[in-house]
């Protein structure tokens, strides 16, 4: 009986020990970012937030909010919804309107703790950079 009690206690302790094991650390790309966009002349165009919640293989998924500045060009609009992206090494491409095939806002940049790069409208005729953006990583999780 003592042997059975000792084995049961040992199994229970090993089970609790597994609970305290550190899990795989989350990918540093995941999290919340504060977004600011500028046109090619440096004029402030939009602000927003990006929250990446999952990264599977090289596909990012999350939520994005954009608040258009009053001087923003036609095509930049307020939005709040799902967004998707892809990650290739440090290169990041974020589609802020994945449900729209033509005219959606796209960010292309480099991840180095923050994300910096160019923003453009994705159209059937192609994509031309319209300005620059910075997405600064926040330590506050969620949206």
Key traits:
about 140 residues, 1 helix, mainly beta, Lipocalin, about 15% helix, elongated
Please outline the helices and strands.
Elements: H1 2-19, E1 31-39, E2 44-56, E3 59-68, E4 79-88, E5 91-95, E6 104-111, E7 115-122, E8 129-138
Antiparallel strand pairs: 1-2, 1-8, 2-3, 3-4, 4-5, 5-6, 6-7, 7-8
Question: Can you put this structure into words, describing what you see?
Answer:
By secondary structure, the chain is mainly beta. About 15% of the residues lie in helices and about 50% in strands. It starts with a helix and ends in a 5-residue tail after the last strand. The chain has one helix at about 1-20, and strands at about 30-40, 45-55, 60-70, 80-90, 90-95, 105-110, 115-120, 130-140. It has one domain (about 30-140): Quinohemoprotein amine dehydrogenase alpha subunit, domain 2 (Lipocalin, Beta Barrel), CATH 2.40.128.120. It is built from one helix and eight strands. The protein is elongated.
């Amino acid at each position: 009986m003592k042997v059975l009690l000792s084995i049961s206690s040992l199994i229970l302790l090993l089970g609790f020990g597994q609970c305290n094991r550190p899990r795989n650390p989350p990918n540093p790309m995941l999290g919340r970012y504060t977004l600011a966009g500028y046109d090619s002349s440096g004029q402030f165009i939009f602000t927003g937030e990006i929250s990446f919640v999952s990264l599977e293989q090289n596909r990012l998924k999350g939520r994005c909010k954009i608040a258009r500045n009053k001087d923003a060009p036609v095509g930049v609009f307020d939005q709040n919804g799902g967004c998707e992206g892809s990650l290739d090494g440090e290169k990041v491409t974020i589609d802020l309107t994945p449900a729209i095939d033509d005219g959606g806002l796209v960010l292309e940049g480099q991840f180095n703790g923050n994300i910096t790069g160019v923003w453009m409208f994705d159209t059937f005729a192609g994509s031309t950079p319209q300005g620059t953006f910075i997405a600064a990583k926040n330590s506050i999780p969620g949206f």
